[in-house]
User: What shape does this take?
Amino acid sequence: MLGCWLARTGVKTRIIDKRASKITRGHADGVQCRTIEIFQSFGIADGLRREGNELAEVVFYNPDKEGKLVLTSRIPDTDPHTSRFRHVVLTQGRIEDFLIACMDKEGLRVERSVVPISFEYEPDQPITVKLAHLPKTEEYIDPSSGLYRSNVVTTDSENLDIKDARIEEIKAKYVVGCDGAKSWTRQQLGFSLEGDSANIYWGVLDARPITDLPDIRVKVVLHSADAGSLLIVPRERNLVRFYIQMGTLQPGEKLDPRAQSSEKIIESARRILAPYTLECPEVEWWSVYEIGQRICRDVSFDNRVFLTGDAFHTHSPKAGQGMNISMADSYNLGWKLAAVSKGLASPSILDTYGQERIQVARELIEFDHKFSRLFSGKPAVTAESEGISIEEFQALWVKMGKWNSGTAVRYGPSLIVAEAGEAKTRMARNVVIGQHFESQVVVCYADAHAVQLADRLVSDGRWRLIVFAGNMTNPVQLARFTSLCDTLSSSPSSPIKKYTPAQADINSVFEVIALTSSPRLALPYTALPALVRPLVGKFGYPTYDQIYSDEKSVHDGGGEAYKWYGVDKEGEGCVVLVRPDQYVADVLAFEGCVEKLGMFFDRFMLPPS
Amino acid sequence: MLGCWLARTGVKTRIIDKRASKITRGHADGVQCRTIEIFQSFGIADGLRREGNELAEVVFYNPDKEGKLVLTSRIPDTDPHTSRFRHVVLTQGRIEDFLIACMDKEGLRVERSVVPISFEYEPDQPITVKLAHLPKTEEYIDPSSGLYRSNVVTTDSENLDIKDARIEEIKAKYVVGCDGAKSWTRQQLGFSLEGDSANIYWGVLDARPITDLPDIRVKVVLHSADAGSLLIVPRERNLVRFYIQMGTLQPGEKLDPRAQSSEKIIESARRILAPYTLECPEVEWWSVYEIGQRICRDVSFDNRVFLTGDAFHTHSPKAGQGMNISMADSYNLGWKLAAVSKGLASPSILDTYGQERIQVARELIEFDHKFSRLFSGKPAVTAESEGISIEEFQALWVKMGKWNSGTAVRYGPSLIVAEAGEAKTRMARNVVIGQHFESQVVVCYADAHAVQLADRLVSDGRWRLIVFAGNMTNPVQLARFTSLCDTLSSSPSSPIKKYTPAQADINSVFEVIALTSSPRLALPYTALPALVRPLVGKFGYPTYDQIYSDEKSVHDGGGEAYKWYGVDKEGEGCVVLVRPDQYVADVLAFEGCVEKLGMFFDRFMLPPS
Assistant: This one.
């Protein structure tokens, strides 16, 4: 994910991986809505939808008073209005493939069998990292077992023999450890993960099951009376991911990896599922993990070294958050690192990485702590009996739906997120400063296409001004919008003027996207300001994708955007400032907009050299 | 297209192409709805939607009484309800890539620089074809000019020197000439194209234009007062395809290819478009063609040699029919040839290729004759003045929309299409025997997915029985459906019993898909007949994708299917028999269904050997 950003923004990057090959089976598989939105912004969401299995429903099974499993509730997996996308599941290996292909287009590849062996840091100097390029080995690792990467194996069990390795010294401006729970980078910084263990262990299994449980192609959350809990996640290629409660440990007790097997996991599943049957003639992958939550207090050092993902937070996998939040960490960091590396922004914006992502990680840990204990708890069969409340568990599940989808994240005020306020809320009631800009269907003036507005927020490093231009058949409003565009294009205090290189296209650093409340054919296309239909490129081709109308399309809906965003169709309009990662940085009135934008960007943008 | 069918059905096939490389620029670009449906059935429609430009609107410009160009009408390009897909445009080279990749998955490739040089036919013997494998040449052909393939060049201008070629003799059971208007295969059969020329020539140009015409990203149909007509088709990658009327020829006069150029075409376009301006700094491709319509009376010889596409019908390109109808020819032929080659069906079904496709080609020629003359005609400025009627032209355009989309094709009764009739129409009022089975959103019992029902009609050679099972909460109707399934699975007269090999999965020749009018949760999944949830494959995995409900899904519509197809939700249901190419072969009542199916298939199916 970080590589995608850096490759697309042209930052010289190397990615090293100590492993000889990428993941092909198992591991993470849930792709949350916000992650699909991010993939879409890189143009790589199609594969998720094509190959992944969309989860439509969640079904809860619980013991009745006699202890017999019964279906107690059935709900949609993704609540409508969560996102234009829905939760899908697909093996991590394919998800990595999409990211790898995305980087590869720009010429960036993962260098495998390369291990970092030393790290030297001096302020204001390049960071020196020594790398060992391991000789190619043909060592066989059973691809169906994920144990060697799980948290029940505390040391790296692989034989990373650097004796015959070629040693290389590299000088780096920045180092980012996306290197997992046992992060080498974290160790160099002397940071550590802090937290506790629940002393409970679960098995995980990818298989094609033969079962008489009718609900096997929807998500099933199942608490048995006495045999533990189980989560069923139907996957691509008729696979099913099972999470299966296995047992408890004494405080301090370590699980013996050699005693684990897929057969033992299937046996536990059968006990939990009884009287339903289960056969798994083909097991694609399995592993065992202990439940625990750990977090690192710091995620960056001197704004030169950063940690993302499991290197700074680990937890249990059942809510499908690990891969998603880890990718979101890197997505948050990527564009900032690119802007600073390329001299467009001051290093101070890198402070916001930790500010924004530690808060998310803390929420994750807190949620997972509660969630995993309820999941592993023995259900109370009646309100009076001991055990966890099924009602409480199901209520938590529903409540956490939006958070789990990744679309509820809200970043606090910072150098790159303005303070919210009453006046701003009045202009766009449902546009939340600090949250990502949500999508609505709008219609393109030039080609009459119905477009998801957020699809225009491509991850290319540009900031965007989404101008709710209002009713263009009102001459006063058209004049106000024209005047705003004129000032944005020509005022010396306009950030567009100040931070766009003189020879570059006017939309190359900031892109202005207009959304009118009036229909697209209400006035001639050329009556709209030149700023939103600029001439670009070597030949000066007109731009046709910056002007949209909030009208109903022939085929694909639309006409609800102003209402959805909470902007008055006949009002004075407003400007929504959107960061390169689609988060709303500010909402501004037309009047004073250019000066306020100027002040906002003057805090961290650097003029073109 | 033919290769896709043959590769996917496992027929040993060779594809030869005399050209050294595939098309990269220009040529056809319109992909009609029915073609996208076909691509979808091969699992390769995604690329069309991802890379192609969907056309949303058609705008008509015509001269007013003073001869000034004015916008006279604006209509949607694809009428709602035409298909679940919409008309897109994309360069032919990419469309070929998708087909090539689809074949390649099965190991079938196009052999290039291979020319057929002799053809020997004896009844009941293999056909002997000699091939010349040309040495690789580095001859430069200007990729931006398409003249050498156009109909203004009457002989093949390429230098196909077979002197140094390696000669190979192959023995073929079947030969299909998909070899264009100058078809070598057709010449071997002694067949010829018959028809006439309009003595009018047009230019065609792919360019990125700079113009002040505001409607350049929608389709524009433009008749000027005196300078001729023009068609604008906005394409992928900001390209625009222009068709530009150039001039007339004397009867018998031939155009001099050497006198043609992109500059001359752009000059003509400027005259037609005036007073709007046009600059084309980058021309990707151009060509010139004469308007004419020609058709071959026969398309097959002894059911051993066949002609498809331009080898049997040529016409003008502006309605975007050539590539689409040509692919539809091959799509019609492919599954039949596969079934006969594999010994599943008698060769008599091959007669239906000509029966079905000659009719379509005749309609095409007739339509194009009328359409191209109206397009090239000088518009009458008033009702009284001379010239073609703009109203007549626009009315024809709208009327032909459904036909152009490829979704209106209806095959007549034949060995593989039953006679229609009042009683059949009553059972499913909007299911037309001989037309392709249209799509509606239905909900899958097992996973709650909203599914386009036609997406289940994958091109894999299987026949399908779509059973409108009715209301499963009505015990009488459930019993009738169960009885139908029992008879289908076990009666000796059932074609499923007779024509499915004993060791094969029960859904491998005929797939039964049930659509209930009752909701999916109205009765337990396992209460439905085993025929629609069979155990398949080596391990006997349950099938979860053969039972659907006509209910509303949470996210994606649905609940309108019975109404759309015209089947009574509370009635006795019916069975729609669908061919491997999605065309409806018959509509049957439950009672007598198995016997009638038996008689239908006994006419041409062969029992497994």
Summary: The first helix of chain A runs from residue 2 to 8. Chain A touches chain B through 40 residues (CB under 8 Å). The radius of gyration of chain A is 26 Å.
